[in-house]
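For the sake of transparency, this paper describes our internal protein records without simplification. The tokens are whole numbers drawn from a learned vocabulary of local backbone shapes. One such record is reproduced below, unchanged from the form in which we store it.

. . .
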Amino acid sequence: MNYQLMPHRITIMLDDDVVKKLRAIQAKQIKESSEAVSFSKVINDHIAKSLK
């Protein structure tokens, strides 16, 4: 069976410079895509990449 994990809601504190970089990445992805790109998705994608 293939189980899909439910997302977890957590609160984290990010430094201003990190937020600026992530927002810039988000803006670039929005320009390159016809779909919405949430800030949570950007954070999730980058955390997942760093854990590989």
Residues 45 and 51 are 10 Å apart (CA to CA). The two ends are 24 Å apart (CA to CA). The longest helix spans residues 16-32.
